[in-house]
Amino acid sequence: MNIETEIQELKERLTLAERRAQAAEDYVAISNLQRTYGYYVDKSQWDQVADLFARDGVLEINARGKFFGQDRIREYMHHFGPAEPGVLMNHIQIQPVINIAPDGMTASGRFRALMQVGRMGGEGLWGDAIYENRYVKEDGVWKIASLRAYQSFYVPYDKGWAQEALPLMTDFDDFPPDEPTEAYPVYPEIFVPPYHYANPVSGRK
């Protein structure tokens, strides 16, 4: 092997190592971004939530419709009101599956949210949702390009998922969306939110 060939191979290996290192950093950044979303939602920090979205971001939670753009997302989130004593709103973000585009500028992620929602002396619920989200690196920073949350179930905490389940949460009557969302089955029915990825072993979609 001559010196020119060896140098070229070293350059290629270095380029590959840099790409892998950047992809690892991007994975951590996106995972932290989504988890940060959950912490802000927990405490009704709606401006902090809206700031996580890209300028032309899209928000779609359960069957309440789509909201386009950071300003509309901010307005939608504030519709839930400020944090109040005795209100529990835990949105635990787990099970990330993140796939970053080859150009390193966009990504897709699937997460699960385990939720504890309720009010002292009032209603208490367990909840579960699946996120299928897109992310974009805007101005050098990873942001949420679209957040799509599919309600899996809401059930009374004292009865659990063995005795009672609530229906799909639909549009707010007093806060219409920019675009409606098509309804889908929730527990106890079976519904699998579409995966953004193929099977990593078989390649089947």
Features:
205 residues; alpha+beta; Nuclear Transport Factor 2, Chain: A; six-stranded mixed β-sheet; 3 helices; elongated
Describe this structure in words.
The protein is an alpha+beta fold and 205 residues long. It has one domain (3-162): Nuclear Transport Factor 2, Chain: A, CATH 3.10.450. It has three helices and six strands, in the order H-H-E-E-H-E-E-E-E. Strands 2-1-6-5-4-3 form a six-stranded mixed beta sheet. A hairpin with a 5-residue loop joins strand 3 and strand 4 (106-119). The protein is elongated. The relative contact order is 0.16. The mean pLDDT is 94.
Topology diagram in text:
Layout: H1 3-42, H2 46-51, E1 53-61, E2 66-68, H3 70-78, E3 87-100, E4 106-119, E5 124-138, E6 141-156
Parallel strand pairs: 1-6
Antiparallel strand pairs: 1-2, 3-4, 4-5, 5-6
Brief characterization of the structure:
This protein is 27% helix and 35% strand.
Q: Which radius of gyration do the C-alpha atoms yield?
A: 20 Å
Secondary-structure element order, N to C? HHEEHEEEE
At CATH level 2, the architecture is Roll
Count of the domains: 1
User: β content, as a range?
Assistant: 25-35%
Q: How many DSSP helices?
A: 3
Shape category: elongated
CATH fold-level assignment: Nuclear Transport Factor 2, Chain: A
What is the end-to-end distance?
43 Å
- Poorly predicted residue ranges: none
Q: How helix-rich are the residues, as a percent range?
A: 25-40%
* Spatial arrangement of strands, main beta sheet: 2-1-6-5-4-3
